[in-house]
């Protein structure tokens, strides 16, 4: 059926078409909003006419897409399709954000009329996907319908039934948490719980799916005052966090039955992405100090062990070494999360890699290899191991966050280019189809609900400077499905005074976990139950010790303090250069990704005429500041850069190095090398270093190799990646090579930075080992001086 709807054009003011393209004036942005709105309604109206009340629309065959009723193992379809009109429910908040009250109200009434109010549906679905798409969509739509400050507020026409539906759905999902670990099963049957579900599809759940329902479930508790949803999901969140390694790195996959982890690596993409997202957003939305500490700890660990120049790598959770040569498309969301945390400068750098992927492929491949794989049959397979792009929103999402923080017009140009690609590459006669293979341009006959819920929503918001969300100074956050959540102070006050937990079944279930965890913590055999001792507290009556760090964490409680963000120059500041894109004009590494990864950034033949969007002449001529001449790029370094990790062992672990985001450090003082991860650059005469400077003999020849002292064997040294060969080779060239620290625990250093290491007399005693101190008090590793790491003996 087709929703009766006013013509889209009648919902907009008349848009002037006489403007200078890429000046991004109000009329121009209004045009791009209108084009985005029309693209949304092209897909949404066709879904309603051709596929509703089924879950999805096939955008090529223009027919409903339903569950695979014949094959329960078809998880790609069945996990997200529960016969609950998923596209309609997931699109409610896009209608709200676009301010289309009539359409929002009509869609809400369809939910009332057609959706089973009790979700008594005989379907097995994934708990995580159903939570973020359906439960989250209902909750956010309820907030819009009941908030008198919003454009789509329904007033007396709305009786709160969306919240009641959300409540009913949560009750259907909550039994998934009734496991021996408190971590949820990945799937559940909405009508029959676990009955008739193959055990094979219940054995593994990922970190994001275990932890992430905490945001939607806790919001439900705040709105209903029934605390069981918060307590049950909160326990699971902190349980999975307790299973991290001593480096504060979390595996991606676990057994919900035994809590055993199925892999030993981590990153920021698929299977773990929403864990980080909801730690930070939960802290913001609920003013939750415990979630904030989780975010602080996990982000510090990621910056320390996973951070490269252009992306966060997949690393071993025990050693922090890169173990997988690829990144996946879902990790494109992380720069946006960095912006929310205040680390805008690094977010812009990490975002650039995904910009280059979009430049080359017209989308973000599901998995791109930054190192060519020699076992693949073709260069294309070597560079892109998973070649599809189902119109995921993560790159658009990060573009939105960075634009809101910086107002750099480059991000408006990126959004415009994405809009053009959606119209020209992916639009079909009845919807939007993703790419099955970015190398051939073949489309896939599927339009997932997130295309309307997230991709087009974030794109619309980039062009909508005056959207009501942008003037709301409250605690608004977007869920991982881009549903806006917020809590007014009155709602929070009401929850804390009226909350209850009278479901004895779930209460007893949690009490059993807490009793077992306490016994495990105090038992001499506690190591037999991995990680449990790291989270012992009654989840709905916090112990006094809840504000303490886990006992075997690798970080010190004394160093936990709010992160500091650099001040950003406002684009509207009268001291700023007029009509200027700082990234385009000033960033010297804008094209470094292109040449560094030239072997795997391969443009498909069908896009051979495609140009880099940042070099579009009409845009470049307006926004690139040329009063100092044509902007230049920094030459590629010819030095070798590698990481060295100093194992904690039994040594005293020092405080965290820095909580300052964005600004390279010039002087650093640390109490010990134990537990430190240091990025080193091997310098030799004639080399071009990472800062763009040529190394001359004076920087090398005057450095002493004579060691006065020998650093104690504590800590041991681990060298990452190809650096083992670097260290070994340079030992025979001591007079020609020195090292320089360029980052410490992920915090970048300036070219003239000095790192002082305060050593106790015991730590500097004579002994044997790879660490020595020369007669200039410089640290030496295997006989090679680190010229800017100076020891100070106390």
TrEMBL record:
Gene Ontology molecular functions: calcium ion binding; mannosyl-oligosaccharide 1,2-alpha-mannosidase activity
Domain of life: Eukaryota
Catalytic residues in the record: 129 (proton donor), 273, 366 (proton donor), 394
Cofactor: Ca(2+)
GO CC annotations, alphabetized: endoplasmic reticulum quality control compartment; membrane
Compartments it resides in: Endoplasmic reticulum
Protein name in the entry: alpha-1,2-Mannosidase
Organism encoding this protein: Lachancea meyersii CBS 8951
Lineage, opening ranks: Eukaryota, Fungi, Dikarya, Ascomycota, Saccharomycotina
